[in-house]
Design brief:
Blueprint (H helix, E strand, L loop, with lengths): L1 E6 L6 H16 L3 E6 L14 E7 L12 H7 L7 E7 L5 H14 L3 E8 L2 H9 L3
Parallel strand pairs: 1-2, 1-3, 3-4, 4-5
């Protein structure tokens, strides 16, 4: 299966980078063809139509509140047809609003017609290994 990990993580945050790498490694070990793209930087290079499964990875807000990354709705609506595609909403835990952030991301994905079949709050690199097995 062709899988896209659409990441909104910060490249200077070590925990987020390690979790993203572990998700990619585990999904590849399950036999998937995985591409990792940044939703902030790689907008011109993202063509969602070629992927069978799209996993959106976002960090939770540092303290309270949950707000979808500003580029996420734009990427989902303008980079190809995602209606009917399966996907996952993955939130990297930080602060108190991780569950709420997961709900907000799922709603944004479903608004574009995606079928979110898996969602999770990723707490650590070890937990990312278990989550990576369920992608796809």
């Amino acid at each position: 299966m062709r899988v896209l990990l659409l990441s909104y993580t910060k490249s200077d945050n070590r925990k987020q980078t390690e979790i993203l790498k572990k998700l990619e490694q585990t999904a590849v070990s399950c036999g998937h063809q995985v591409d990792v793209k940044s939703g902030e930087k790689d907008i011109e290079d993202i063509h969602l139509i070629i992927y069978d499964y799209i996993a959106v990875i976002v960090p939770a807000s540092p303290l309270f509140g949950a707000k979808v990354p500003s580029k996420l709705p734009e990427v989902l609506s303008q980079c190809g047809n995602v209606s009917g595609k399966k996907g996952a909403a993955l939130v990297i835990k930080s602060g108190f609003s991780s569950a709420k952030m997961c709900n907000v991301v799922m709603k944004a994905m479903e608004k574009e017609g995606m079928f979110v079949d898996y969602f999770e709050v990723v707490e650590s690199v070890d937990h990312a290994t278990a989550v990576g097995r369920k992608i796809g």
